Amino acid sequence: MGRWHFTADAAVFRAAAGAHLAADPARNTSVLTLTEKADRLGWWTEPDGRVTGVVAVPRSGLPSLGVTTTEAARALELPDGDQPVELRGETAAVEAYLDAAGRPWTPLLRMRLYRLGALTPPDPAPAGRARHATEADLPLLAEWTTAFVRAIGEEPADDYTGMLTERLTEGRLHVWEAPAGRPVAMAAVSRTVEGQARVHLVYTPPADRGRGYAAGVTAAVSRAALAAGAAQVLLFTDLANPTSNALYRRLGYRPVTDHLGVRFTDG
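and the corresponding structure tokens:
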């Protein structure tokens, strides 16, 4: 019978589970993103030593399952007998855990992971142009980030300046600028890890929606990620938002797998 192993050391985790993570970095994107930020990292080994499941438990936020068999998910138990307060991962794996645990829960999110095929920029192109964000944009982008977090049903942090500055400094944060020079949309891309980068923070304020700005800035950051060497460009969408799902398909993104996030209500 297989078993879970846990460590707080990212290097130990990568040594044990690196081949499993690298075999499908797109489906393991959440765990790869969290590896350096997690309090605990876990991997499931089969009796023959093969790793067939991984999980990252960050300092805050949702613990995330990577590519994990239903058997491994059903057997998930955190160190010291802890039970997760929340859990996210591919829908089949999370549902296997829910079935085995028998704990009451409520859904937090239902998302779809997309991977870019051939990038197809919007045609006709929206008015304006994409550019890298600058320090002068930070107050506005911090407001937009707060609105974005609220829109996806999460509680915003007190300050996003540090997070945005990091992306800005590394050239990973773009805005779409209307012809008059006014920023009207933003998008960011993660650092490239195991050959994959993930688009996130795609936001247009309500008054400027419906003009193609989100498509323009998403195409721009996707192109920048490819130019920076990413072999795969990914993004998550809310399954309840048909507009964004249709938009990303038009840009050349193709579905990979669905994700479910839950909060347990027995705490």
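(Above: one complete record from the training split.) The helical segments are 10-23, 29-34, 70-74, 91-101, 138-151, 161-169, 213-227, 242-250.
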